[in-house]
Amino acid sequence: MIPHSFDYKRASSVEEAIEILQNGSYAKVLGGGHSLVPALKLRLNAPDTLVDVTRIESLKGIGIEDGTLVIGAANTHHEIATSADVQNTLSFLAKGASAIGDVQVRNKGTIGGSIAHADPSADWPALLLAADASIVIQGADGTKTVSAQDFFTGFFSTILEETDIITQIRIPIPPEGTKSTYQKFVQPASRFAIVGCAAVKEPSGATRVAFAGVSDYAFRDEAVESASSSGASAEEAASKAAEGVSIMSDHYASEDYRKHLAKVYARRALVEVS
Amino acid sequence: MEIKISVNVNGKDYVREVEPRTLLVHFLRDTLRLTGTHIGCDTSSCGACTIHVDGVAVKSCTMLAVQADGCTVTTIEGLAQGAELHPLQEGFKECHGLQCGFCTPGMIMTAADLLAKNPSPSESEIRHGLEGNFCRCTGYHNIVKAVQYAAEKMSNEVSA
Fold this sequence. Notes:
The structure holds 2 protein chains of 2 kinds.
Chain A: E1 7-10, H1 14-23, E2 27-30, H2 36-41, E3 49-52, E4 62-65, E5 68-72, H3 77-81, H4 84-89, H5 91-98, H6 103-108, H7 111-117, H8 123-130, E6 134-139, E7 142-147, H9 148-151, E8 152-154, E9 157-158, E10 165-172, E11 179-186, E12 193-201, E13 207-212, E14 219-220, H10 222-229, H11 234-238, H12 255-273
Parallel strand pairs in A: 1-3, 2-3
Antiparallel strand pairs in A: 4-5, 5-10, 6-7, 6-10, 8-9, 11-12, 12-13, 13-14
Chain B: E1 3-9, E2 12-18, H1 24-31, E3 50-53, E4 56-59, E5 72-74, H2 87-94, H3 104-117, H4 123-129, H5 141-159
Parallel strand pairs in B: 1-5
Antiparallel strand pairs in B: 1-2, 3-4, 3-5
């Protein structure tokens, strides 16, 4: 399958990338390309220009700054999965990253590309929601930081404007004694989540629970969170999962089955963090 | 508009003009005539097109040739040292790790990445490491044996 013709430009700075985005009539940002290139091949998308941002040095690097884990948008899933800083502070993110796709996909796909694409079955959105992450976005008018909860707005939709570039993902390192997990029921060929449940429980009892694969886009399940935060058992809290949201249905899993799986995976996740 | 790229493939430098939409696998197969890399599913699921770019396994059907500009690429044709097969190639031959052979180049390239990161993987680590490569003939059993064969041979070569 051959994509539609386009121009390719490699940016050496975020500013240069934004300038190219502003000048193209329809330009798209190219990260690892593991969402965009398949879409181009299927001609689901036909931009006139691609701006490759993967060689911009400032978009790479994983480190800890004042109690915050900082991940560059152009870091690959593999780099995140194998980073000692991630493993030592938020190990469930490293485990979640290692459950994305397969080794070849993890070697090339980037965290920034994944969240910009916002596939409802992708793992990063649910992981970042449960981790209470913030996303740093640079655009024509400057830089802003938004919470993961405000970032994802719908089916393959985010608050990103056409000329915005994600530069960093910032995740607060939780207090000592916090437990976290990501439980995933995998589609065996694509390895996307049919249902993925990320859960983080702090020593105070405060719990965050987020789902991938269940609805039009990743979401935090407030009913499960408030039940678990106020001391309900894993079983009881999980029984409230995925109520009152629209549930996806496809040839892999019907609506009823997905809803059932959401409760099963919520229970497994909550048992893991209790 | 075509763009000039330079890529080192299997130790040899190539400078070519490519259309930006050219997939790396087509560049390798059609431009450089290195047809050992196969196109299976063309949807980044099956892994038949796996090659190494700067030392790590990637699916060349999901990468543009322009993304490989300045990179070092290794394909299945670059593994053997002259007439001497790479231990993985020998393993697939000795352990009957293939039947039709279509998936084999990709299997071997992914296995080579696995062994570079983990020189003595367990059976389960091998199966997990090859999850991005599909084989419709063998049931994977002899592929796992072939990787174990290569792991052992390579560790003996290192210690020898």
